[in-house]
User: Which sequence fits this backbone?
């Protein structure tokens, strides 16, 4: 038996913190409980986020969307709807635009773990370096620790000083 969609009554479970509907046939993210912290929809057909970007889910810290059909349009909504993500697993999807993806993902100020392997954008020259240099605070990329030398950290801090954000070497 397989699940094809998320039911509207799901949103009534206000105390639910973790939801796992991995390996089903869900194509749209919708009707989520308001205090959800972890959502696992790996191995589905997700290609749409049908949630209101003006009503973000601030409690969501982990979003597992590997092996779906996520494209740039869905990624932009994900960033708006789940602004406090600590971990985003969007591996093995259809993300092709490296510049666009980085521009959106860098808006996730609390992101520490990012999985993008298996997407066409990883064929961009210096993929790992671009992510490490442009997404402040990233500690794990595609399951590997991210290390930056002090000169890159200093350059990032100088560049972002006007924004009030910086990255420490600790």
Assistant:
């Amino acid at each position: 038996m397989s699940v094809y969609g998320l039911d509207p009554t799901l949103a009534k479970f206000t105390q639910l913190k973790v939801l796992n509907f991995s390996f089903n046939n869900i194509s749209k993210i919708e009707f989520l409980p308001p205090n959800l912290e972890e959502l696992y929809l790996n191995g589905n057909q997700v290609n749409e986020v049908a949630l209101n970007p003006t009503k973000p889910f601030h409690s969501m810290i982990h979003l597992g969307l590997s092996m779906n059909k996520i494209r740039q349009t869905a990624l932009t909504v994900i960033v708006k709807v789940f602004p406090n993500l600590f971990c985003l697993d969007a591996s093995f999807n259809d993300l092709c635009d490296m510049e666009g993806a980085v521009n959106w993902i860098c808006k996730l100020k609390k992101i520490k773990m990012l999985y993008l392997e298996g997407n066409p954008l990883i064929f961009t020259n210096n993929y790992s370096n671009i992510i490490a240099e442009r997404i402040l605070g990233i500690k794990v990329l595609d399951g590997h620790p991210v290390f930056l030398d002090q000169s890159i950290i200093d350059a990032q801090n100088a560049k972002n000083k006007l924004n009030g954000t910086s990255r420490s070497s600790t």
Q: What stands out?
A: The CA atoms of residues 37 and 60 lie 4 Å apart. The chain has one domain: 8-163. Strands lie at 18-20, 28-29, 38-40, 48-49, 62-64, 87-89, 113-115, 140-141, 144-145.
